[in-house]
Amino acid sequence: MEFSFTPAQEALRTEVRSFFATLERPDGDDEAPNTSLERAMAANGWLTMAWPAEYGGRGASQMEQLIFKEELFEFGGSFDFLGVQLAGPTIMVHGNAEQKATHLPAIAGAKVRWCQGFSEPGAGSDLASLQTRAVRDGDDFVINGQKIWTSNAHHADWILLLTRTDPEAPKHRGISMFLVDMKTPGITIRPLIQLTGVHGFNEVYFDDVRVPAKNMVGELNRGWYAATTTLDFERSGIERNLVARRDWNRTYGLLRSGTVSGLASRPAVWRHQVADLFIAVEAGQWMARRVAYLQSKGLVPNYEASMSKTFNSELGQRVADFSVNVLGLPGQLRDGAHAPANGVPAFRFLDARRLTIGQGTSEINRNIIATRGLGLPR
Predict the structure, then answer these.
(1) Which residues contact 164 (CB under 8 A, 6 or more apart)?
(2) Which class is 236-373 in CATH?
């Protein structure tokens, strides 16, 4: 792996920074999608820059996309991750010509939003045990069941949905994937309010939901293989490290400012932890960059993506825990004049609890590292 960026890549970073300098910085308080920012990125070809040009992208490399994400997070922005990095690429790999023509331009133009219907109350880490049924009825499939922890379902126009189409087959072989319009009759969304008070997750119920058979992605009963493609895309991003880095920079800035007393109260303890976390944030960044580097070489970083996901999601929790502790009692405040950084450290402490569960638990990812990376027996 190269541990430096090429002159062309550094020039791209400068170009991206100049682009964001023309936009209004997000305030970070709005839970709703920032569609104006997404459409500005789409209009300049940034939103789906790593997609092939034929699908509305720039044909950029994974390393170039990584540079864009790093600058986007530094700017304080975000985008429809589920559409751009999960649904869109999955449709490119497994979708037919009609599905590509229908959905990819809409995602690239920031005209629709997506959610992912994978987990169920009885099928989370063991995703292949899902029980949501899809039964063929003429030109349609009729779907019944429940999904849970569905991120941003209340904002989504479409859902990438896994269903069981053959209950008699081995559990990995009887699954099919569908593209489902969230406005279809029979779909009910119920909010799951998180520990932070934010509405990000949802339960989604399907009661005799009719979906055209043409909306199936890939082959009947072969949806598991499309799902593993989605999961690889999901775990391979640098976003988790960028979240940890953003939290780290905020806390380190507070400590350097001299406005908090935590560092002075136990200097030997805190300074060692400061150094340890600084090194960990840097190491996590290079782990994530390595995944992008391997992808740019045409390789499939399966266990490497799990390594990056596990390390950086656990790092995010470590940084959040450190932030609240080093800031002392004020670090626990969510609002008020005495809350450091407008209460963001306290919010992140609560929000970070989910990091090692979403997108594959640390336990599941460690199994992938052990079996596929180290060659250990199951």
Answers:
(1) 130, 131, 132, 133, 134, 174, 175, 176
(2) mainly alpha
How many of the other CB atoms lie within 10 Å of CB of 2? Answer: 9
Assess whether the region 7-108 and the region 236-373 belong to the same CATH fold: no
**Reduced to 3 DSSP states, what percent helix, strand and coil does the chain have, rounded to the nearest 5?**
50, 15, 35
> Among the options 38, 120, 234, 314, which is catalytic?
234
Taking the CA atoms of the chain, what radius of gyration do you get in angstroms? 21
Domain ranges of the chain: 7-108, 114-221, 236-373
Give the global pTM. Answer: 0.87
Question: What architecture is the 114-221 domain classified under in CATH?
Answer: Beta Barrel (2.40)
d(CA 43, CA 108): 9
The domain made up of 7-108 is a member of CATH 2.130.10.10: no
- Nearest of 200, 183, 130 to residue 161 by alpha carbon: 130
46 alpha carbon, distance to own chain's centre: 18
pLDDT digits (tens, 9 = 90+) for 214-260: 999 999 999 998 888 777 666 667 888 999 999 999 998 888 887 66
Active site residue 234: yes
Residue 105: φ, ψ to 5°: -60, -35
